Amino acid sequence: MKRIVWYSIMLMVMLVLAACSGESASAPKDSDGKSSGGTASNETFTYASTSDAVGLSPILMNDAVSANITEHVYEQLFTRNGDTQEFEPLLAESYENPDENTWVIKLKEGIKFHDGTPFNAEAVKYTFDKLRDPATAAPRASLLEPVDTITVLDEHTVEIKTKYPYGPFLAALSHTNAAIVSPTADKKQDLMKDPVGTGPFKFVSWTPGDKVELEANEEYWDGAPELKKVMLKVVPEISTAISMLQTGEVQFIDNLPTEQVKRLESMDNINIEKKDGTSVYYLTFNHSLERNQDAEFRKAVALAVDRDAFVSKLNGLGVRSDSVIGPQVFGFDESADKAGTAYDVEAAKALVKKNGYGDKPIKLLTANRDNFILMAEIVQAQLTEAGFKVEIESMEWATFLDTARAGDYDLTFLSWSNVTGDGSELLYPNFHSDNVGSSNRSQYSNPEFDELVVQSRTTIDQDERLQILDEANHLMIDENVVIPMYHGIVTAALDKNYSGLEIDPNGKWSLKKVSRK
Question: Which residues neighbour 22 within 8 Å (Cβ) at sequence distance 6 or greater?
Answer without folding.
Answer: none
